Amino acid sequence: MEISHASSIFLLTLFVFSTIGNKNSWSRANRFSLFLGISLIFELGSITTAAFGIHNFWIFKIFLIVELLYFNYFHRDILNSTIDIRGINAILIIALIISSILGFIFEFINPWFLTILIIYFIAQNGLILLSLFKQRSDNLLQQSQFWVCIGRLSYFMLIFFIFFGANIFNDLYKNVIFLNTFLVTNIVANFLRYSAYTKSLLVNG
Known about the structure:
Blueprint (H helix, E strand, L loop, with lengths): L1 H18 L8 H24 L5 H18 L1 H4 L3 H23 L7 H23 L8 H25 L7 H27 L3
Helix pairs in contact: 1-2, 1-8, 2-3, 5-6, 6-7, 7-8
């Protein structure tokens, strides 16, 4: 509970910080503020349901879908910049849709959906970073999109191993060592993600 509260406070701080002094009503920073605000709502929802002993993993699933939609919009200038990038991103989305459909048809695939979704996020952020290196390498460290991608890529690469391992070994969630590893990994992943998000709010690109 304490860790969840810490995450919420961090998100709230970022949300407030990102809206201060920004006069452009629909700038990239304000669009990112919108996502941080949505993230905070989901985080608080997760804390509230956990406090009442309500199973809340579904909140995380819904949030990942929201994240999928939002960041396809947030990075649309990169994802639509060339035919190759549009094609690769379209293939990734189609593969994600197919896996979702197969999950409804074949029950054994359904537990893998989150892992597949995380793989999509890793691949998409890798694609965006590669495009940024090619297009804006002269001032890459001053690009907010670069730091957002670094944060998301770090986060999803770390939690991927948790979900992958849980899918391979179904009893892992009952193992104390695994649960502690999950907790520590999640803390580190969130720290890296939010630190990169903070940096993205400090640059001008």
